[in-house]
Write the structure tokens for this entry.
Amino acid sequence: MRTQAPGQSSLLFLDVAQILTAHNIPYALVGAVAAAVHGEVRATTDADAVLSVPLPQLSALRSAFERAGFRAEVRLGDHEDPIPAMLILQDDHDNTVELLAGIRGLDPEAFRRTITVPFQGDTLRMIGREDFIAMKCYAGGPQDIADARAALTRADAATDLDLLRRLTRRFGRAASDVLEQLLACSQRQQ
């Protein structure tokens, strides 16, 4: 593993991505790492990704990570959890990567809209901008809404509003309402 100390979860994800790619499992980085690409950089030690993987394959994937030297644990969500399962990976320095086995409402085409981001001489797959904003509207916490707002207001990136609205509707009425409030607020500020 490339990590040498605590606080290097993003670096640990390079090793994770290598194994995911070897197993032909589509992934997209989400969370704070994606926020740094789509909006504002904020301090974090997290590296989270969503996978396109059937639940039965998650146990086999856990075994592959254990063989590679990771501590690995599968946690299953209940019927109300928007995340059906999660594979939590750690190294000897307690750096952690959480791999989400899907998110209820996420468009399956999100993995085709990922963007490639260079990192430490390698490349990683990041969730696309519209998918990121839609997911953040769905999560709905104060930091999530701040992340969505920052991604919406980035001057260097155009937003496909039709796609964004369609993706957000997949997460339900509450997420759509949050998005429309953010859009109305950003229009007033222009």
User: Anything to note?
Assistant: DSSP finds seven helices and seven strands in the chain. The mean pLDDT is 91. The helical segments are 9-22, 31-38, 55-67, 129-139, 142-153, 161-169, 173-189.
